[in-house]
Every structure is written in structure tokens, then in C-alpha cells.
Amino acid sequence: EYGSFIVEAIEGGRPASIHGNVRNEGWIDNLPDGCVEVECDVDRTGIHPCHFGSLPEQLAALNRAHMAVHELIVEALLQRDRTKAKYALMLDPLTAAVCSLEEIDHLFEEMWSAERESLTAFD
């Protein structure tokens, strides 16, 4: 959605401000080193994320919970670990808000079975 603004800023010299997804390298103080969305200044020299500071703790905690699930999913994929994939689904705050652990376990097994042909790397 910001492509034309970025091109115009870098090639045309017209600075812009966008919200971009970048690696958290201290842009949000109380979140780990993951992907965050922050304001970014764009000019002829490129895209420059802006320091945000700290989120209110209740928002930081919610973000950290989601980031932990995403990290577990990545570990499951890289290690071809079916159990970690199941744990990621169990730890997902949105899933856990509407399903019991037993329901999540059943849901996972049903989805895994339905997608078995695509998951041969996990065997």
C-alpha cells in the first residue's frame, strides 16, 4: 500500500512517513527482537524506522504472547516437530479463548489428518 510513496521518496526526493513492518531493533523498548510495525521515515537514503518507546504493559504483554506463539511455530517448522506445532496452537490466545485444550487437541489432529499429504516432511 505504501509502494508509490517509497519509490517517490527514494527516487523523487519527496520524503514520506509510513507505517512499516520491521525487525524490532530497539524501536519498541519492551518487546523482544521480532517483527513490529512502527512509523518509518522514507527519504533518498532509504527507509528509517522511528523509535516508539515502550507500549503500555498490558499491550506489550499481549504482543509478547502472540510473538511467543509465532516463535514456536517457526521452531516447529524448522525442526519438523509436530508436537511443537500442536503446542503453538494450544498456546495461541485466540484459540484458547474459545476452545478447551481437549478441543484444541482434537482440532489439531483433524487438521493434521486433512493436510497429511502436505506435511510429509514431519514424518
Task: Please estimate the helix content.
Answer: 40-55%
- Please provide the count of β strands: 3
Q: Topology as H/E string?
A: HEEEHHHH
Spatially, the strands of the biggest sheet line up as 1-2-3
Major beta sheet summary: 3 strands, antiparallel
Taking all Cα atoms into account, the compactness measure Rg is 19 Å
Low-confidence stretches: none
Distance between the termini: 40 Å
The tally of helices reads 5
Total domain count: 2
In terms of DSSP E residues, the strand content is 15-25%
Helix and strand composition category: alpha+beta
Based on Cα principal axes, name the global outline: elongated
pLDDT average, as an integer?
A: 95
Explain how this protein is built:
The chain is of the alpha+beta class. It folds into two domains: 3-49, no CATH class; 57-116, no CATH class. Helices cover 50% and strands 17% of the residues. It is built from five helices and three strands, in the order αβββαααα. The protein has helices at residues 3-12, 57-79, 82-91, 93-96, 101-114, and strands at 16-23, 35-43, 46-49. A three-stranded antiparallel beta sheet has the order 1-2-3, covered by helices on one side. The longest helix is centred in the middle third of the chain and has 23 residues, at 57-79. It is elongated. The model has no long low-confidence stretch (mean pLDDT 95).
